[in-house]
Amino acid sequence: MKPALLVIDVQKQFFDESPETARSLTNAIEYINAGIALFRAKNLPVVCVQDIGEEDERVPGTTRFEVPESVKVLPSDLHIHKTYGNSFNKTPLAGALRELGVDTVILTGYCAEHCVLSTYRGALDHDFTPILLRGSLASGVAENIPFVERIGDVISYGALKQVLG
């Protein structure tokens, strides 16, 4: 198994959607950053996926589009910009992951029941093994996170750490 960590749609604009969304994102960032640190320690790829929403003025170069400073992605990480919920749809993500020899994607981010779940299904369509990192998903509706976790394969941070050695 060669995994990559996908950090999906953790962008400044989404913190303004509601207090519940901001809380959920803030809580998820702790696990996302732990995942990033683990992947860096193992020299494994970290991918930052950012959603473009022209109608919301969430476009590259705007504050709304940017990843919060609290998220430890680096400019040297692979950055994918998407316009659909599924991070694989009409993006170079699948090809870039294949070039890196990746066969498994560990999914984190926002919004659990929309873009994360769509990307989970997209990974399957592209013959990647998708796994959700428990604690790293965010949503404006807290009940939707366990719903998504029941649908997909989930791993805890501790178990991921053991698997990666």
UniProtKB/TrEMBL annotation:
Name by which UniProt lists this protein: Cysteine hydrolase
Source organism (scientific name): Polyangium fumosum
Taxonomic superkingdom: Bacteria
UniProt-listed CDD domains: cysteine_hydrolases
Alphabetized Gene3D superfamilies for the sequence: Isochorismatase-like
A GO molecular function held by the record: hydrolase activity
Keyword Hydrolase among record annotations: yes
This protein's UniProt keywords: Hydrolase
